[in-house]
Amino acid sequence: MVAIRSAEIIAVGSELLTPHRTDTNSLFLSGRLNELGIEVRAKAIVGDDLGDLADILRQALGRADLVVITGGLGPTEDDITREAVAAVLDRPLFEDAGIIATLEARFAERGFAMPANNRKQAQVPRGAMVLPNPKGSAPGLWIGHGDRVVVALPGPPRELQPMFDIGVAPRLAGVTAGRRWRRRTIKLTGRAESQVDEVAREIYSPLQHAAVPVHTTILATPGQIELHLAAAGADIAAVDTALDAAVTALATALVPYVFSVDGRSLEAVVGDLLRAKRLRIAVAESCSAGLVLGRLTDVPGSSEWVVGGIVAYDNEVKVTHLDVSRDLLGAHGAVSEQVASAMADGVRRRLGADVGLGITGVAGPAGGSPEKPVGTVVVAMSGIAPAVRTFRFPGDRQMVRQFSTAAALDLVRRALLAP
Question: How far is it, in rounded angstroms, from Cα 283 to Cα 238?
């Protein structure tokens, strides 16, 4: 058998095509296959239809060295994985006496006679290797087909996961030519996906054709961009060297927007900087309504650098709890650089912190004006390196608030990094 380098995963079950059930097996399998040096090239979900499954299996076999099918191995009429595999591979099904004996014993232990329909689970395509299932009734299958391999696993994760780790992974480890995938992640904030790609592609595009190819993908979420780098090879040291060089080149080109190349979250980075400088922070929030403080305190040990916060949603709270003057609110409005700065200074003094952070804005969907449309957010910092910035964020209410929290934390990060 030639080395297995690529895989596709097919999840079987009509319930997976509804909003009520999520395919989690493919996430587990992708992780395990990547660890073995096998690249997952595609995933598919198909309902309980013999013709549809057969078509998708044929297509997958035309592209991938390994096809892993999950589900459809039960005893009922809608369990059609065995039949589809037998038809596509042209391998007649036969009843395995050993499986029948195991099933009968399993039911006997529970004080039952085995139902007749369970005999279906003993149907095996000719030439297949049976994978025992100590956690359930459906055995798995390993079938070599020319230079391809088809693996069929039961759908329940508690059955699939140990079967893969015990029965499949050791066999695959011997046919991957020693290749292993390694990955890195660069996290940025303060730039849009297109802006990041405009700079990054000049670096990552040539890397796809290097001696050790490095592949880069971009993932965008509100307030954060991630560059995912991956490379594979038998020489792990060479792979790591190529990835490290790529990370260095990309991170250098994207300064000052990069905040992490080691997996840390933005709030963890800010927390580490505050701790290193022996500073404590307090937060005053209006439009973000406690989300910034929530992110900061999600980090274990954050009591070392977080004092607390005040959600000042109503203007009266800004006056009574943050000492924002009524004249300031009247002259500039709640969403203004003057008020955001006063909020940051007020929460710092009121709570006895070294750093104060104030956030105010129009999250929407109502409340905007021509001068201050929905998405207008002002973030201010007081104490060390006072700063204030006004943003115009896109999207709905949730997105604006997510952007706001990232902008606020990044303002602190940059201030703490300044010489």
Answer: 46
CB 317 within 8 A of CB 339: no
Q: How confident is the model over 135-174, as pLDDT tens digits?
A: 988 999 999 999 999 999 999 999 999 999 999 999 998 8
For the chain, list the domains and their CATH numbers.
6-173 (3.40.980.10), 180-260 (3.30.70.600), 266-417 (3.90.950.20)
Cβ neighbours around 119 below 10 Å, total: 15
Sheet holding 224-233, edge to edge: 215-221, 224-233, 180-188, 258-260
- Rg value, the chain, Cα: 28
pTM reported for the whole predicted model: 0.83
pLDDT tens digit string along 205-254? 999 999 999 999 999 999 999 999 999 998 999 999 999 999 999 999 99
Q: What are residue 26's phi and psi, to 5 degrees?
A: -65, -30
The string of DSSP letters for 172-212 reads HHTTSTT-EEEEEEEEE-SS-HHHHHHHHHHHHHHHTTSSS
